[in-house]
Amino acid sequence: MTIKQSKRPFAVWMLIALLVFLAIAALGGGAGMIAGPDGSLLQFPEGSLEGSPFNSYLIPGIILFTLSGIFPLLVV
Known about the structure:
By secondary structure, this protein is an all-alpha fold. The protein is built from two helices and no strands.
């Protein structure tokens, strides 16, 4: 009895690579926002949070780190 291995098409491998790239970039950006919630670490402009519901970059950093960073790596 032989086990048939499924061969993934090239497009699937490209999508996996893009998902890993997205996750790595989100982990870096999210960690930078968490480490410097005032935006100075990533050199964000000072007025970029005006009109948003956030006072600092901490909560957006946590969201970016988990939803776009950790979860895609769990899927891959």
